[in-house]
Amino acid sequence: MMNTEVEKFLEKINLRVDKTLNNWLPPKNTEPSVLHSAMRYSVFGDGKRIRPGLIYSVGVALNIPYGKLDSVAAAIELIHVYSLIHDDLPAMDNDDLRRGKPTCHKAFGEANAILAGDALQALAFNKLCSSAETKKRESLCAQWIKILGDAAGSVGMAGGQVLDLAAVGKSISKNDVEKIHRLKTGSLIHAGIMMTTLLDDGNLTDKENDEISQFALDIGLAFQIKDDILDVEGSSADLGKLKGSDAARGHPTYVTVFGIEVAKDILEELLEKALQHIGFLEESGQQLRNLSKYIVRRAY
């Protein structure tokens, strides 16, 4: 029952995020049309939009209106999609399928895929700092850029991808695989949540803000561990890509490093910790708690 409610919520925010993204992205027939077509092809599909879902759920918990959250949710999704386009390239993961359809470089060629990713990243920053919220509060633009820039750069996603590629086919420590996951996946989830707390207008205490930050770190790592488990136990049809592809390429995962049963135990421990961190939200945090449980117990 809880899953059904969460899925309905995700469907609702999916429509909202898609509307913002559609307004942000240039039309396909605007030159260079091949680039704009590649951008739209990658952004619109069967993604669950869990990252925006977390942003809106934190917003609900903090009583922030949806209208204030749209720019953060859409920008985080653009950065996420850009990273997927680049991760799929032959020089990196060399994937043919993403979200059940050919990857961007398969559909538009490698050069156009690289440029589509670059353009999506630039668009995210551009639209964030021209949003209604940043016009009301000039300092917000600089704060958001700092958080998102760190999350996407060498101390975040890009750095995590480098470490991940360097570890292919090698035996690495448990601490190393955790570091890769926290950077490559967790950093963007953490960024979206902390960008959201900046819209709270100072109602959060420093301790409460720290608790949300710790929650974001834990749920971000949990998200990736669940993906590692689904790579083994899920189906290719549900995953929208080839099952077992990470292990086949020799990428370190929680399953390959810890074993699947230990990975599941760690996942449940992370969920428990994450929920403890947001206990202070009480009734207003129920949607966020439900989504957190969904992330850990989803079937795909």
Topology diagram in text:
Elements: H1 2-24, H2 33-43, H3 50-61, H4 66-87, E1 97-98, E2 101-102, H5 104-108, H6 110-128, H7 132-136, H8 138-152, H9 157-166, H10 174-197, H11 206-233, H12 236-239, H13 245-248, H14 254-258, H15 260-277, H16 286-297
Antiparallel strand pairs: 1-2
Helix pairs in contact: 1-3, 1-4, 2-6, 3-4, 3-10, 3-16, 4-6, 4-10, 8-10, 9-10, 10-11, 11-15, 11-16, 15-16
Explained architecture:
It is built from 16 helices and 2 strands. By secondary structure, it is an all-alpha fold. It has a single domain, classed as Orthogonal Bundle (Farnesyl Diphosphate Synthase). The chain has a two-stranded antiparallel sheet. Strand 1 (97-98) and strand 2 (101-102) form a beta hairpin. Helix 3 (50-61) packs antiparallel against helix 4 (66-87) and helix 9 runs antiparallel to helix 10. The protein is globular and about 50 Å long. The two termini are 17 Å apart. The model has no long low-confidence stretch (mean pLDDT 94).
Descriptors for this entry?
Farnesyl Diphosphate Synthase; 300 residues; 1% strand; 16 helices; 2 strands; mainly alpha; globular; two-stranded antiparallel sheet
Approximate shape: globular
What would the CATH topology be? Farnesyl Diphosphate Synthase
Mean pLDDT: 94
- The neighbouring-strand order within the major sheet is 1-2
Question: Fraction of residues in helices?
Answer: over 70%
Q: Termini separation (Å)? A: 17 Å
The string of secondary-structure elements, in order, is: HHHHEEHHHHHHHHHHHH
**How many separate structural domains?**
1
